Amino acid sequence: MSRRTSQDAIPDTREERASYLNAGQGLGSWLLTHDHKRIALLYLISITFFFAVAGCAAALIRADLLTPEADLLSNEGYNRAFSLHGIIMVWFFLIPSIPNVFGNFLIPLMIGARDVAFPRLNLASWYIFMAGGLLTLAIVVMGGVDTGWTFYTPYSSTYSNAYVIGALAAVFISGFSSILTGLNFIVTVHKCRAPGMTWGRLPLFVWSHYATSVIFVLATPVLSITLLLVALERIFGVGIFDPALGGDPLLFQHLFWFYSHPAVYIMVLPAMGVVTELITAAAHKRVFGYWFIAGSSIAIAVIGFLVWGHHMFVAGQSPYASAVFSFLSIVVAVPSAIKVYNWTATLHKGEILLDGPFLFALAFIGLFVVGGLTGLMLAMLAIDVHVHDTYFVVAHFHYIMVGGTVSAFFGALHYWWPKITGRLHSDLWSRVSAILIFGGFNMTFFPQFLLGYEGMPRRYHVYDPSFQVLNVMSSVGASILGLGYLLPLTYLLWSLRYGKPAGPNPWGATGLEWSVASPPPKHNFETIPLVATGPYRYPLEADAPDEGEGEKEAERV
Amino acid sequence: MSERALHDPFTRLDRQREADRLGMLLFLGSEVMLFGGLFAAAMVLRLQHSHDYIAASKEMHYWLGGINTAVLLTSSALVAGALEATRAGRARLSGWLLGFAIALGLAFLAIKGTEYAIEWREGVVPRFSDAKLHGGPHELFMVLYFCATGLHALHVTGGLTLLGMMIWPKGAARAEREATTLGNVALYWHLVDLIWIFLYPTLYLAR
Questions:
Q1: Lower CB density within 10 Å: C or N end of chain B?
Q2: For residue B80, is it within any domain?
Q3: What is the CATH number of the domain that holds A367?
Q4: Contacts of A134 (CB under 8 A, 6+ apart)
């Protein structure tokens, strides 16, 4: 706590302090803003809303699974509930969550820029995202879609009676938002760095977003064309995935997963960037192996493009292809493990502060390790045949996406909240909610590993009564998890009004974003900073030479 | 994508121009991946239905496609010339070259439309006019053909709109800035061209 007390003396002068929050009044100043910080807040509000909608769908699913019979939802209704849960969570929460909120807010601040490279494009990207999101909501109101988030053909193209075209269009539209955001970030990192901000001095958060952006730009268009082909097939009743004509439904799966597997890394790479920042700040120690962490982000992005076939081990793919995909899926665990080891080594002999953000980061590491190791099991051909399409797979990817990404999202929210709002939140309550989320999460999803291993298939809501105990455990855990997610909503909103005003650097952390006022002024920096040192120069007072400083060439500015 | 003048995050014009160029290149990268999905589909079709694919390709009007290739390549060359003319400060010449390039782009669309009309009359349009389609793979080939060339034609239309915006009369003393914007538009036009160079053999010459 000692690092925070020094900030308590800051007088409550927020109303007088000019910041991006009061730089313009009225709704128009928000809806037409080009300020990356305000756009980030627009995203924060929108994705919180979508998270709530998709969370309600999850609550329906878990309530229905309390009993082995179909008593709450019809078969059709259950299909629609899990499809909407998947579609909204993946495309309207997880994918935009950390990049579009925290990436948008922090990348310019971290690299010493006044904004992203294309501010208008940034705003356009939000509008495109909202168009896709509102279309999805319209689909929900009209009755939903029942294909699952994966839109597998020929069910989606021929047999489903739901609003598939609308859902395809919504995801197609939101894809352009992803592409534009990725493009914006890459150009920003290349061209808008402050003088002296060399590649070796970039915070690792920026590196992980750079890797994510490459996936955004190169993988998303493949999804766009695939969804377009499915939509045309559905509209005209003839298409290249149609097996009746000799078309290949497996081709759809190849194209779909060529995007959607890298999309998993879109979801987890930014989370890893967040965790790296949280860990070094909490340990108050220079990050261990800067270049290994930066390089592993790039390696994950590159190898992540080559593993998509592990989704089709039992779909009739050539066994030789499966062997290669199996090998590559095991390989991608190496850079992921490098990160985990480096975080652990960073904590070693650190001056650790057990605050809320740090607990979220720890939760990420633990849950990510479980998710990652079960991912290795699934990458083995023989095990995958046994557990394919069971709850084992469901548990595995929820450990990565919810346990990993959502924990990191909440960690980021707590860590940068004082910077975003200028207010300190309750550290006690943030620790309570981190523990609640960690416990609730494990209680929800660990039983699903057991269910899956014992053979309960996914996407079924009528199941063998012997599975009921574990399903009830899972549903109870889900209510705890839900409570854990609601809690921050209350004390964070409370802090907006009653929280102590935050100084520029409430955590005593390094990084350019902590050198400006909280909340930052409209144009971030009065004068563009001259960067002379690398990130993570802990302890703050000392000026020991930065590691890897020697191999940096002077960057032209 | 290009701005009229220096805008917010940038403090220097040359940096901003580099950013605009990089943004355009990344966008083109995403366009390549978009068409990549269609080329992957063509490859799968060619591997799984080898003989039918060749038979279907033989029925394509490769002369029309060939003429269109020449038309589009010439148009691209003219845009490259217009860019050089703008850089040399010869705005009038640049305007003329762009005008010819746009005319050729429109000619491309006209020839493409004619080809579609001929195919309609021949009865090889899946679902709508499919009297002469023989077998599933032929139908799949034609679906792919219409998807790929249709999407390409949309890109041609987009490119023509951008080129049209470039010859719109504007004030003087803008040559350098204009060269940057025109350079980016030209890049896009070359990409449209490049995609066609791959589409043409994939669909017309696989015989």
A1: C
A2: yes
A3: 1.20.210.10
A4: none
Task: Evaluate whether residue B6 is within a structural domain.
Answer: no
Determine the Cα angle at A324 with ends A384 and A94, to 5°: 60
Distance between CA A108 and CA A511 in Å, rounded? Answer: 12
Question: Given CB atoms, is B158 within the 8 Å cutoff of chain A?
Answer: no
Report the domain count for chain B. Answer: 1
Residues on chain B touching A238 (C-beta within 8 angstroms): 126-127, 139, 143
Nearest to A97 by CA among A270, A272, A310, A250: A270
Token pair 């007072």 in the structure block, residue: A541
Confidence at residue B133, expressed as pLDDT on a 0 to 100 scale = 85
Facing A240 at nearest CB: one of B16, B33, B143? B143
Inside any domain, residue B142: yes
Q: Which two tokens stand for residue A412?
A: 């980021």
Question: Which pLDDT score, from 0 to 100, does residue A15 have?
Answer: 54
Of residues A116, A221, A254, nearest to B33 (C-beta): A221
Residues A329-347 pLDDT 10s: 999 999 999 999 999 999 9
A439 part of contact set with chain B, CB < 8 Å: no
Residue B113's domain comprises: 13-203
**Cβ neighbours for B124, distance < 8 A, ≥ 6 positions apart:** B59, B130, B132, B133, B138, B142
For A149, phi and psi rounded to 5 degrees?
A: -70, -10
Predicted ipTM of the assembly: 0.92
Q: What is the mean pLDDT of each run of 10 residues along chain A (557 residues)?
A: 46 65 89 95 97 96 95 93 96 97 97 95 97 95 92 91 93 96 97 95 97 97 96 91 89 96 96 97 94 97 96 92 96 96 95 93 97 96 94 97 96 97 94 97 97 95 96 97 96 94 92 93 92 86 44 37
> In sequence order, what are the beta bridge partners of A501?
A423
How far is Cα A355 from Cα A508, in angstroms, rounded to an integer?
Answer: 13
Q: Give the Cβ contact number of residue A141 at 10 Å.
A: 8
**DSSP code per residue over A80-108:** HHHHHHHHIIIIIIIHHIIIIIIIHHHHH
Q: Rounded to an integer, what distance in angstroms lies between the CA atom of residue A498 and that of residue A321? A: 59
Tell me which of A432 and B86 has the higher pLDDT: A432
Residue pair A386/A364 in contact (Cβ under 8 Å)? The answer is: no
3-state secondary structure B110-158: HHHHHHHHHHHHHCCECCCECCCCCCHHHHHHHHHHHHHHHHHHHHHHH
pLDDT at B106 over 70: yes
| Residue B1 within a domain | no
Contact list, B44 vs chain A (CB under 8 Å): 248, 251
pLDDT of residue B175: 60
Whole-angstrom distance, CA of residue B168 vs CA of residue B182: 12
Find chain A residues with C-beta within 8 A of B40's C-beta: 251, 254-255
